[in-house]
Write a structure and sequence with these properties.
The chain is mainly α and 271 residues long. It contains ten helices and four strands; from the N terminus they run ααααββααααβααβ. A two-stranded antiparallel sheet has the order 1-2. A two-stranded antiparallel ribbon has the order 3-4. A hairpin with a 2-residue loop joins strand 1 and strand 2. 13% of the residues are buried. About 4% of the residues have low confidence.
């Protein structure tokens, strides 16, 4: 019996440790929130009360249960505390409904543990969400998610992953234009000339444009190409930032009056 009693004591301490360990871990990592500390204390108290209840169940069971009972049946008996058939006569009430009688049974310990635990959690919830107002209610959760989405969108915009022909803008950054010039000379000069004067492709230095003179038009042309005239799509070889840089650089070539310009093509645009 002493061995069983020690085992039960160890089991209670183990359960108490299991309930309390997340609280201890969170307390060590999140020390900046006073409200969080209060909630953790309340959770710890709840875990302690649950452990106490289980300890009382174990102590009570030692006095009333048969010594030879063990295993799953013993656990179920501890949780239910159901009276034996021999004791039912003592629990009969005077109520009689067409021969159906009622027993004055005790409420099972497992139910009471859940019941008191629910009350404690209800108090925590009410204080946190409806009195202190610092709980993560649905509206706050929505606002937090919107803020996170805005931050992620800003990061993606800066990385260029969301840059496309609809939202691209002209960049006047000197470094970006220098990068655009390098990209142009490396990939575009073979058809448009080293200075954009036009060879197989159109002249970029006059006021005539075949596919539009806006940054959006140039970005779209670079991205999708003009297969009918032999210009390939560059979206698999240039990232959006590079296409923005080279498109912005092309716009700087207007009016540069290079030697041997190609004859105007397309529509005349006035500026």
């Amino acid at each position: 019996m002493k061995l069983i009693k020690k085992f039960k004591t160890i089991a209670v301490l183990f359960l108490l440790f299991i309930f309390s360990s997340p609280v201890i871990a969170q307390t060590a990592t999140e020390t900046g929130s006073e409200l969080g500390s209060i909630i953790k204390i309340m959770v710890a108290v709840t875990a302690f009360l649950v452990a106490i209840i289980m300890w009382l169940i174990l102590v009570y069971s030692e006095k009333g249960e048969a010594a030879e009972e063990s295993g799953f049946k013993k656990l179920m008996h501890l949780l239910n505390q159901r009276p034996s058939i021999n004791d039912e006569q003592k629990l009969l009430l005077d109520h009689d409904f067409d021969g159906i009688k009622e027993l004055n049974n005790k409420i099972p310990p497992w139910f009471m543990a859940i019941f008191y635990g629910s009350i404690i959690w209800a108090v925590i919830y009410m204080v946190d969400f409806h009195i202190l107002g610092s709980g993560n209610v649905q509206e706050d959760e929505y606002t937090a998610e919107v803020e996170v989405a805005s931050m992620e969108r800003e990061i993606l915009n800066k990385s260029g992953k969301l840059l496309n022909e609809d939202n691209v803008t002209v960049t006047n950054d000197a470094a970006a234009l220098a990068n655009g010039k390098q990209t142009f000379i490396k990939n575009c000069a073979a058809c448009h000339g080293q200075n954009g004067e036009g060879l197989v492709g159109p002249n970029f230095t006059d006021d005539y444009w075949i596919h539009g003179n806006k940054i959006n038009d140039l970005f779209k042309t670079i991205k999708y190409g003009v297969p009918a005239k032999g210009m390939i799509s560059w979206q698999t070889q240039l990232d959006p930032n590079q296409m923005q840089e080279v498109a912005s650089y092309i716009l700087t070539l207007r009016g540069s009056n290079p030697a041997n310009p190609k004859a105007p093509e397309g529509t005349l645009y006035t500026y």
